[in-house]
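Quick start: read one record
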Amino acid sequence: FQFTGNGGEFFKIWIVNLILSILTLGIYSAWAKVRTNRYFYGNTQIDNSGFEYHAKPLAILKGRLIAVALLLIYVLIGQLFPAAGMAFVLLLLLATPWVIWRSMQFNARMSSYRNVRFGFNGKLNNAYKYLLYIPLMPLLTAALAGIVMYFVTGKADPGMYVPLVVTAFLVTYLMLPFLQKAITTYYIGNHRYGQGTLHVDLSAKKYYLIYLCMFGWSILIFAGILIAAAVAMFFSGMNLAAMMPAAEGEVPVMAMAPLIAATVFMYIAMLVAGVWIKAYVKAHVRNHVFSNIQLDNVMKLDSTITTGRLFRFYLVNILLMIFTLGFAYPWIKVRIARIMANTTHAQLAGSLDQYVSLQQSKQSAIGDEIGEAFDLDANLDLAF
């Protein structure tokens, strides 16, 4: 894969989108989304052909207006009737799998390569299974056990229920790698390209190994940072104590400098360590997922991104955003698309021209835009 766009080109699109969206109170944002997606789809190429994005701005605008209306209703209800606001949150929770499912359908059907449309045929009940039922199972089990304990003992002792709740959250946390594997398999394995089907064979064991290594590295890195900061603060304290008599009780500014420097070092080191951990998980998960994707027996994908390369990439992006006050965003978005495309490869064992596009019915953008309004993401951070 390759990405042929550049930051200067996208900056012109981005700044016009930003200005017009502000001047139209957000109405133009639907057109801005389409222009942005068409630019990135068209400049993401394989075998010298780019992808295409077919969504219509008016369809997105209708869905976005409904989404914003729901968001405003939620805010108003939450302010005026807190209890009703909680009920609205519960309804949103119940609707979340449907929103993500609709978003997956919409984004797939609005994408094509060489005039052949993509599609998504995942079942809604599986979306609820992986996004709601299984994640909530430990909490529901703990709640049921708590109810049984109440009727058996006849008393509501918090000491009896706290272990249940803690255990439920711990089990849910330990299930996260399995859930990520299951949702990714559901998302990719139900995509199709024309008459062809994408296949993915992921390993839950691999996910757990990645996160176990991440946990081990996190302990080592943060322990090292804390030890280094503690040593620096210890010597700073000794230096400060030595200078106190000469200052007759007043703390010299220069005496505080090492202590301040040690504190700043600790916070910066924590931030950098967090960026490295993010890069480690992202690189390893992405490589595992892409190396196990294939389109029938015609094409097999692979990803070769490394933790070190992604780590340096993230650090440069952070510095660019800080020193340009956010105006480097178009260049950063282009850099992200380029590095993800350049580290993704396809091995062809046949011709993609054999696929015939399935007839696509009209697809509403409501699910996709409701998801965006409530910050629900359906691409699992795997897209270019």
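Residues 204-243 form the longest helix (40 residues).
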